Amino acid sequence: METEETISTRQLYPYQEEAVNTIFNKLKEAKPNENILFQLPTGGGKTIIFSEIAKRYINHFNRKVLILTHRTEVKTLTQQSDYQSFTALVETLNNRLQEDEQFLEDIGLVIVDEAHYNSFRKIFHYFENVNILGVTATPLSSNKKLPLYQTYKEIIVGESIASLIDQGFLAEGVTYSNDVNLSTLRVGNNGEFTTGSHEMLYTQAMMQGKLLDAYEEIGKGTKTLIFNAGILTSIAVYNTFKAKGYPIRYLDSTFSDRDRAETLEWFRNTKDGILSSVSILTTGFDEPEVETIILNRATKSLTLYHQMIGRGSRVLPHKKKFNIVDLGNNSRRFNLWQFPIDWKHVFVAPHLYLEQRYKDEWDYELENDYELPDDIKARFLNSSAEAFIVRERYLQCLRKGLKPQTVLDQSLDDHFGRIKDNAADFDEAFELFDLLSEEVKYRVKQFAKCINATNNYTDYQTQTYSSKLRRRLIGWFVE
Predict the structure, then answer these.
(1) Torsion angle, CA of 396/399/403/404, rounded to 10 degrees?
(2) pTM of the prediction?
(3) In angstroms, rounded to a whole number, what is the distance separating the alpha carbons of residues 182 and 426?
(4) Which residue has the higher pLDDT, 404 or 7?
(5) CATH of 14-159, one of 3.40.50.300, 3.10.20.10, 3.40.50.720, 1.10.10.10
(6) How far are the Cα atoms of 213, 248, 288 from residue 220, in angstroms, in the given order?
(7) What are the tens digits of pLDDT across the range 62-115?
(8) Fold (CATH) for 164-342
């Protein structure tokens, strides 16, 4: 638990002043227990904004302010006396409140830093007849069963990333994407790619070589932060770069506070230093000199995507741009970091954005048709070799207002025509039918991804597809 009286004051930028005025006017009108959420990109100065709001709140209402955080790096407030404001780690405060529910009195406003984390909700019941102001760069709850609209009445959206770049308040991110075959990645119960499947892919020599090549081409000589999904990958990255003589350290959750502090101090003081981490620096870490962010992982989390890239977005007099190296097809899944997002829609309809379901059609596997082996391909020389991309057909159907099932009907027509064009008799037709079985499975799987179907549905559709094609072939020969 922290209490401090002063930190140096800082002049608000015009957009920050506007945000403070908008939020404070809402707070003055709000009834007890009416809560507000404020969104602003990483690097936009959320801490400065809510610190100013806290100061105005204390002066206007003469009540105390509590700032909740899940990390220790948050700044405290200015010009306070007799501890009118408190900054607390959520776990520490929860323990104190369990011992004494009256530990903090006369709190009128609770400010929640990184409000998308739901760990804060467990202590809200200790504070009655207060207002809660949540601040976050990405208003998507970390727990899909507890959407933020259940806690906050409305959302106030601040300046966009693109606007802050145009005004010179954020550095411009230049994205370099490398196509990576992610077909071996698996999705866990939480909707995210599993650490285990990440480790199996990203520790391979091929992926380590791709990472090293990307660094040497784009980020060599710059202060570089590499995000990995697992500790084994991070250590492998360290060993790969160390073998080439590059200045690198790695950091993960197993480090003691002392070792963590020493590693971060080394990184700050090493102009061309490289730091390999396991996502623990996505929040609460501010190193403005970072010039290259490498996403050495894939994620289905829009929040994590923005948190990782945001670590490089601080602008400096000599730094107006920074590099984003994407080795997980993330920019295709989410669009570029600076691409506009309707955060009000995210707030009211989070289910469309959690687990990135609304863009699964961008998955690597959906960009290509099944590649027939050469010996099988040679059996279909009398028919067109034009690719049948399920995702493209699916989007075409949506635009034309056709049922999604139309895609499978078109695919079945394609397979029937190819067999018909290349089979001389009944036996050869069913031989070709068997040779296309893997392609059938592949296309049905692609279709199931487009409509976000279950595995059971996929199996059912595969069996149905094969039965329909078989019956159609029999009917052709009977005629």
Answers:
(1) 50
(2) 0.70
(3) 39
(4) 404
(5) 3.40.50.300
(6) 10, 12, 18
(7) 989 988 887 654 544 444 445 687 777 777 787 887 777 777 778 889 999 988
(8) Rossmann fold (3.40.50)
